[in-house]
Amino acid sequence: MKKETKSTVIEQLHAYIESYPNFYLTNIEALNAEKTSELRRLCNKSGVKMVVVKNTLMRRALSEIDSVDFAELYESLKGNTAVMFSEVANAPAKAIKAFRSDNKELGRPDLKAAYVQEGFYIGADQLEALVNIKSREELIADIVAMLEGPIQGVLGQLDSAAGTIHGVLDTLAERQ
Question: What is known about what this protein does (predicted)?
Fold first, then answer.
C-alpha cells in the first residue's frame, strides 16, 4: 500500500472514531465474501458502519486521538479485524449476536474489544454485557417512566383534595 493511500485510510479512520461515540473491534476471519456481505447488510440495517481494517493503520488512527488513550485496545488488534462504528451503544453487539445465531456453524464474528460509552470492553465474553447496555434514549425513557408513577400519584392526591375542599365549600354554602 502506498504511503499516500495509508495516510488517507488513517485520516478516514480518525474521522470515523471522532464522529461515532461507540466502536467494536471484531474478528471476521472465517467469513467468506458472501457471508461478509451478509454481515455488512445486517449492520447497515442496524445503523452500524462496518469497515475492514489493517491493524497497524487502526492503531495509528487510535494513537492520533488526543482526547482518549486507546492503549487498552492495541492488544486486540491482531488477525483479521473489522471495525463496527455506531451511534447506538448496543447496536453492533445485537448485530453480532443475530448474525451468529443465524450462522452457528461459522462461530464468527467474534468480539475482540469495544469502546462503548467511554468504557473499554475486552474479550468475546463481554458480548452479552454489551447487548444489554441501554442507550441514552432508553435510559431517559426508563427514568421518565419511574418518575411518572409518583407524579401521577401526587396529581391524583391534589385532585382528590380539590374535590374534598369543593365538597366542604358546597356544604357550607347550603347551610347558610
Answer: Forms part of the ribosomal stalk, playing a central role in the interaction of the ribosome with GTP-bound translation factors.
pLDDT tens per residue, range 117-175? 888 999 888 888 888 887 777 778 878 888 887 777 766 776 776 667 766 667 777 77
Q: Take residue 8 and report the three cell numbers written for it.
A: 488517507
Question: Can you give the residue ranges of every domain in the chain?
Answer: 3-133, 135-175
**Angle, nearest 10°, between helix axes 33-45 and 91-102?**
140
25 phi and psi angles, rounded to 5 deg: -100, 125
CA 37 to chain centre: 22
> If you average pLDDT over every residue of the chain, what do you get?
85
Bridge partner list, 27: 110
45 contacts: CB under 8 Å, gap ≥ 6: none
